[in-house]
Amino acid sequence: MAPFPPALKAAARSAYRAMMRASRVTFQGDPARHLQMVTAVRQTFSSPSLTPPPPGSASTVTRDAPSEPLVEEIEESEIAKRIEEWQEAARYLRKNIVQGVLDERGNWKLRVTDQTELGDNASIKNPPKLPTTPFPNRNRRKCGDAKPAPAAKA
């Protein structure tokens, strides 16, 4: 396997740091989720191909267990694409994920940060107009045009 491309090392470090910062901000006050996220990110960025670990394996990895890395040939363009995906994941984590806590009255208290993206619901208030047809009532029957039901045979 070829070593990690030197030209992409700085970008990979930047994506790693962005994911760590985003997970710290997003999962502040939830150490279990933060630890799972940090473990998964560390496993991903310690792999030469930046491949995420299988689901559920992030919480079961111990430091003493020897692990055999999967050796796979991957092109530099694919690694650059994965780095960009991790940058996008960090942006998404910062802006769109919030933590909620159920209080004693049964209400959810959301921890919204200054980086959380808040929508204004303008698109919901003003929906796009439906297309009109030249004959909107073409298939509508009039009250007197209803066909009588056939009589039942005895």
TrEMBL record:
<feature type="compositionally biased region" description="Basic and acidic residues">
    <location>
        <begin position="104"/>
        <end position="114"/>
    </location>
</feature>
<dbReference type="GO" id="GO:0034551">
    <property type="term" value="P:mitochondrial respiratory chain complex III assembly"/>
</dbReference>
<keyword id="KW-0143">Chaperone</keyword>
<keyword id="KW-0496">Mitochondrion</keyword>
<dbReference type="InterPro" id="IPR045298">
    <property type="entry name" value="Complex1_LYR_LYRM7"/>
</dbReference>
<comment type="subunit">
    <text>Interacts with RIP1.</text>
</comment>
<dbReference type="GO" id="GO:0005759">
    <property type="term" value="C:mitochondrial matrix"/>
</dbReference>
<comment type="function">
    <text>Assembly factor required for Rieske Fe-S protein RIP1 incorporation into the cytochrome b-c1 (CIII) complex. Functions as a chaperone, binding to this subunit within the mitochondrial matrix and stabilizing it prior to its translocation and insertion into the late CIII dimeric intermediate within the mitochondrial inner membrane. Modulates the mitochondrial matrix zinc pool.</text>
</comment>
<dbReference type="InterPro" id="IPR050435">
    <property type="entry name" value="MZM1/LYRM7"/>
</dbReference>
<protein>
    <recommendedName>
        <fullName>Mitochondrial zinc maintenance protein 1, mitochondrial</fullName>
    </recommendedName>
</protein>
<feature type="region of interest" description="Disordered">
    <location>
        <begin position="104"/>
        <end position="154"/>
    </location>
</feature>
<dbReference type="GO" id="GO:0044183">
    <property type="term" value="F:protein folding chaperone"/>
</dbReference>
<feature type="region of interest" description="Disordered">
    <location>
        <begin position="44"/>
        <end position="73"/>
    </location>
</feature>
<keyword id="KW-0809">Transit peptide</keyword>
<comment type="similarity">
    <text>Belongs to the complex I LYR family. MZM1 subfamily.</text>
</comment>
